[in-house]
Amino acid sequence: MNPAAVAHLLHHIGGSAKRSLEGASLGITSTADPLMSPSGRRLIGKIGIGLFSVAQLTHRFQIITKTTGDPHRTVAAVALRQYSDQSPPPDTENGEYEAGIVNVWREPATDPDAHGTTIVLTDIRPQTRDTLRSADLWAAIDSDTELGPDKARDLKPPAFHIGRLQSQSGDTYAGEAGNLDSLPWTSDDDSKTAFTKLVNSVCTWIPGRAGVIGGESISSNC
Fold first, then answer.
1. Which residues of 182-218 are buried (b: 16+ CB within 10 A; e: fewer)?
2. Cα–Cα dist 148/151, whole Å
3. Can you give the pTM of this predicted structure?
4. Distance between CA atoms of 111 and 123, rounded to whole angstroms?
5. Distance of CA 148 to the CA centre of its chain
6. What residues make up the domain containing 218?
7. pLDDT of residue 144
8. Number of domains the chain is built from
9. How crowded is residue 152: how many other Cβ atoms within 10 Å of its Cβ?
10. Are residues 111 and 28 in the same domain?
11. Cβ-count burial of 17 within 10 angstroms (0-12 exposed, 13-18 middle, 19+ buried)?
């Protein structure tokens, strides 16, 4: 996104410039078709709830974004208010409510031809952290091994994981084959290959899904 698009995004939480004529002036949609990106990729999302959705995962996050040919990248550090936070009453006369605070700045980029956006979660909620690392399942596996072969439920680790630390010994967990992780891609795969393998692995559970990377559609065989 260019700086104008970032500013629009942050000032219109709960709204979106996608699928609108305004999106073209911000470089978000194609001038010929508001359903497409400037490069011709079909757009996803349209009601502007992404910033609200990420608040379920983290209290704070960063948006780091850049367009091709721009010698600078735009960085926005966002802190969204939680429902339980004490905050000033809404400005009922103007219909405005302070949903959080944000600092935006520009910094030089060493890769002027780069194009894309990165979202960094900087204050992940404890319950989110436990969910992402399958804490309940790993705890059940630990307790299962203590029951003995007669009572054990033969629980299996998650199909895909990045390894973990044993809760008691502090040693790094190693899988049955001695690997620390179980991922659908390898460290030697480039980004497109890794993403294709990710999509194919997800399609094992959700048939017919596909993804997009670098403006190109990635379809699966499942």
1. ebbbeeeeeeeebbbbbbbbbbeeeeeeebeeeeeeb
2. 6
3. 0.63
4. 28
5. 40
6. 185-222
7. 72
8. 3
9. 13
10. yes
11. buried
